[in-house]
């Protein structure tokens, strides 16, 4: 099946980055001459088939005006206390111009190493079903801990790390996130909200180095990954 409906994007960038620490939110940290946020948007912005991009920023964001993303397709709106609230705010902003059946890519502002090839594969594959997400298989042995000691070993077979972008139909995703919110379920990614509605999002294998900047050491790693990829 081909993707007959238009494609949009929401970039949640309203987090404070508490685990990262520091004065500047991690999405605005410098990385190879740009900000982390600009690297995250790059593969989406360069696609001609993305009709519009909503960047969701914090209400008190003082850094966004300094970002230079020369495109009439990009708008900024204010997010909420949780990532899911921010994604909902982004979807709300699309509701005036997009159709509920259109597709939306949701991609963390803190993931600067997404490759064009992974994005292409997601866009091609997700539209064949209810939608899908980039994910990487778990490589390490997993331990469940209790009070600092191993309680048990968790079978890693069949386990994947959920990455972004994730791609769903705007209407279905908005209602899944609304439903999760009203029932008190904290959806830490879009797929979790969709799963609760009975959907089975497609796992699209992606690169393990599509990392999320979470701790200071991740920045040097991202710099290396982007330099090696040849897009810098
Ligand atoms: O905190 P975490 O690293 O999981 O955040 C993932 C993405 O969601 C980041 O790009 C962050 O800016 C965004 N976010 C948001 N609104 C929040 C919390 C996080 O847009 N309230």
Supply Rg. 17 Å
- Name the helix and strand elements from N-terminus to C-terminus, one letter apiece: EEEHEEHEHEEEEHHEH
CATH hierarchy class name: Alpha Beta
Bound molecules: cytidine-5'-monophosphate
Q: What's the overall geometry? A: globular
Kindly describe this structure.
Helix 2 runs antiparallel to helix 4. The longest helix is centred in the C-terminal third of the chain and has 14 residues, at 216-229. The relative contact order is 0.19. A hairpin with a 2-residue loop joins strand 8 (142-146) and strand 9. The chain has six helices and eleven strands. The strands form three sheets. Strands 5-4-1-6-10-7-11 form a seven-stranded mixed β-sheet, sandwiched between helices. The protein has a two-stranded antiparallel sheet with strand order 2-3. With 232 residues, the protein is an alpha/beta fold. Cytidine-5'-monophosphate (C5P) binds next to strand 1 and helix 2. The site of cytidine-5'-monophosphate has 17 residues, from strand 1 and helix 2.
Summarize the structure.
This protein is an alpha/beta fold and 232 residues long. It has 6 helices and 11 strands.
Secondary-structure topology with pairs:
Elements: E1 7-13, E2 30-31, E3 34-35, H1 36-45, E4 50-57, E5 74-78, H2 83-94, E6 103-106, H3 116-126, E7 131-137, E8 142-146, E9 149-154, E10 160-169, H4 170-182, H5 190-196, E11 202-205, H6 216-229
Parallel strand pairs: 1-4, 1-6, 4-5, 7-11
Antiparallel strand pairs: 2-3, 6-10, 7-10, 8-9
Helix pairs in contact: 2-4, 4-5
Bound molecules: cytidine-5'-monophosphate.
